[in-house]
Amino acid sequence: MKQTALFLAIVTALLPNFLSGFALAADSQDIFSVSVPVDATAASATAARESARLDGQRRAYGALFDRLAVGRDRAKVPAPTDAVLNDIITSFEVANERRSDVRYLATLTFHFRPAAVEQILRSRGISFAESASKPVVVLPVLDGGSVPLLWEDSNGWRDAWNKNRAPQGLVALTTPSGDARDVAAINGAAAESGSDDAMRKIAKNYGNADVLVARATLRGAGANKTVSVNSTRFVPGSPGGEQTWVANYNSNPGESDADLLARAAAGTAGQVNDAWKQTNVLDYSQNGSLVVMVPTDDLRGWIAVRQRLASIAAVQRTDLMSLDRHGATVTLKYVGGIAQLRQALTQASLDLTGNDPDWVLQQRRGADAPAQ
């Protein structure tokens, strides 16, 4: 009784603020922020720093639109004029700063204004996505002849992924450390066969991420060397939802095996990100709303769900209609179709079940609490 009374007292105090309605934009701190290394030389340290900033913000602009725009529309992105950059960059941060009398080196992180970026994309008719995928752990399997290589020191394909410094897109790709837990979870043969049991074990080591098995085969010699990559994205625990891509990379004159593999790794990462964007293009010509029940026995549970909703670009607004000790009743306003909304919710570890008018939205069991 005391716990119930305390809960109701908290609800009574907070409910007016919630019921006033609030817009929940996407948790855009990561999606709309880009870090770039800069290195500039000029007549003075001040001039070098300014040159580095100007160069950095232009490269960050390009990287941001590469992240969001679907490949076929990337050429429609306008050049980054000073006026455009002043309008869409809200601030920047400096890290790893080093300087001399004439040289400036640092890592600059630029924060872009989401509404201004979206305006550019929509005004130019550029197809784009803003929903970040759940993390994906990459298992680089190299065809080693009789035994597929994964954790072995001779796996140069894994080295290529470890050294890959391509800008992160909407799909955050992570190469596992290969420690004792990883080695115990999966080996090259299990990865190659797509063993769901092994996939679930390695995924658990990395926050229940999806798993990308990227199988590479190196053929030929000298100028005729080729890398064939067959990559499959698995959803551990949900067999049947795999996506697969195939690509071949021919060596350039004088290119080393390591450089060829690095190019193949970057190309594979691009395939995965492009496929994600194609699936999650925001269609502003469609919109809708759902009234959902969020079952929870305390205020903390509702706040956790609300934080996850705030990370979903397709969810434009969330209005709390009621809140009691059994849960919350919420109106979700979204763009796109219901299937796309359901997929975006799944990526945020939220499950939408039911049908009109009895929709239920709840946090997936075992999901980590969102970062504060």
Descriptive terms for the model:
Rossmann fold; 372 residues; Endonuclease I-creI; single chain; 3 domains; alpha+beta
Give a quick summary of the entry.
It contains eleven helices and 13 strands.
Q: What does this molecule look like?
A:
The chain has 372 residues and is of the alpha+beta class. It folds into three domains: 2-27 and 283-363, Alpha-Beta Plaits; 33-123, Roll (Endonuclease I-creI), CATH 3.10.28; 136-279, 3-Layer(aba) Sandwich (Rossmann fold). It is 35% helix and 28% strand. It is built from eleven helices and 13 strands. It has helices spanning 2-19, 45-68, 82-88, 114-123, 156-162, 180-185, 188-193, 196-204, 257-279, 299-309, 338-347; strands spanning 33-41, 89-99, 103-112, 136-142, 173-174, 210-219, 226-234, 243-250, 287-295, 315-324, 327-335, 350-355, 358-363. It has a five-stranded mixed sheet. Strands 10-11-9-13-12 form a five-stranded mixed sheet. A hairpin with a 2-residue loop joins strand 12 and strand 13 (358-363). The longest helix has 24 residues, at 45-68. The protein starts with a helix and ends in a 9-residue tail after the last strand. The relative contact order is 0.12.
